[in-house]
C-alpha cells in the first residue's frame, strides 16, 4: 500500500498512464458490448423497464471513457498526465457502480439462468480488466470494489437471509482481487522506473557517439599515414582496446553469424549480464528492430551498401524490453578465408 501511495516520478507516471490508454478504447468497446447484451438478457426475462434505465447509465459511462480516450490522444504532450489518470479512475468508478447495480438492484428474485449470468458478467469484467488498468494506482480497485463488494453483501447477507460462510468466502475473494491489483501495480511501477533509468543513461551518453566516430576516423587516418608497421599496429590496437574497455558507451563485438564475441563493461551494465554469459549467444537476444528498419538476412540485414549504418532498435535485458536507442553497426575488415564480423555501439534515442 505504501509503495503505490508514494508520488511517482513524472516520467514513470507518464508511462503508467500511457500503458492504460493502450487498452482504454478496446476496454470501452467490450464494456459497451457487454452492457448491450446484458440489456437483451434483462428484456428476455421481463425486466426491460429497469434494464433500459440501467443501459442509459451504461451509455453515459461509455461516453465518459470515449471522451477520455479521444482527449488523451489529442493532448499536448508537454502537459501533465495527472488529469487523465484521475479521469480513468472516475470512469472506472462509474463502471464499477454500473456493474454493482446489476448485482444488487437488478439481481433477479426468481431462480433461473439470469442469476448465473449476472455473477458471470461481473466476475469476468472485473477479473478480465485487472491487467488493463493496474498500471495506474487505484484505477482497477475503483472498478472492482463497487462492482464486487455490494454484490457479495447483497447476495449472502441481504437477499434471503444471512449466510455467513458463503458471504465471508465471497468477501475474501473480493479482497484477493484487490490484493493482486495492488501487487501488479507495484510490479509495473518498478518496471517503468527501471526503463526510465536506462533511458536516462543512454541520454547522458548520447553526445559521445559523434565524438567517438570522429576519433575513429582520425585513428584510421593515422594508421594509413604510418603504414602497416607492427609497432604502429600494436599501438593502435592498444588504444582501441583501451577505448573499448573504458568507453561509457555500451559496445558489442559479433562474428559474421551475429553471435556475441565480447562486450565492454558498459554493455554488461546495460544488459545486466556478464560477458561470459553473453558469449556465443545471438545478438537478436539483446536487441530488436523497432520496425523503422526492415531487417533481412539476420544481423547482416542491418548493413546496406556501406560498411557502417545506424538504426533505431529496442534493447532487451533478460528478454524484457528496457528502452529504445540508436545503434551504430560497423563491419570489420575481412580476413582471408573468413567472413567479416561487426561491432555494435549503443547511443541515445533520437530527439
Overview of the structural elements:
By secondary structure, the protein is α+β, with helices and mostly antiparallel strands. The protein folds into two domains: 2-201; 249-346, PAS domain (Beta-Lactamase, 2-Layer Sandwich). It contains twelve helices and six strands. It has helices spanning 2-5, 10-44, 48-73, 82-103, 113-128, 130-133, 139-158, 164-204, 208-226, 230-246, 265-271, 275-278, and strands at residues 251-254, 260-263, 287-289, 308-317, 320-331, 342-346. Strands 2-1-6-5-4-3 form a six-stranded antiparallel β-sheet, sandwiched between helices. Helix 4 packs antiparallel against helix 5 (113-128) and helix 7 runs antiparallel to helix 8. The radius of gyration is 29 Å and the shape is elongated. Mean pLDDT is 84; it is low at 1-5.
Summed up:
61% of the residues lie in helices and 11% in strands. The chain is of the alpha+beta class and 351 residues long.
What are the defining features of this structure?
transmembrane helix, elongated, 351 residues, 12 helices, 11% strand, membrane, 2 domains
Distance between the termini: 36 Å
How many whole angstroms does the radius of gyration measure? 29 Å
Give the mean pLDDT: 84
Spatial strand arrangement across the major sheet: 2-1-6-5-4-3
Low-confidence sequence ranges? 1-5
Q: Report the portion of residues in β strands.
A: 5-15%
Class from helix and strand fractions: alpha+beta
User: What's the count of strands?
Assistant: 6
- One letter per element, helices H and strands E, the order comes to HHHHHHHHHHEEHHEEEE
Form type? elongated
The helix tally amounts to: 12
Total domain count: 2
Question: What is the helical fraction, as a range of percent?
Answer: 55-70%
Characterize the largest beta sheet: strand count, sense, and whether it forms a barrel.
Answer: 6 strands, antiparallel
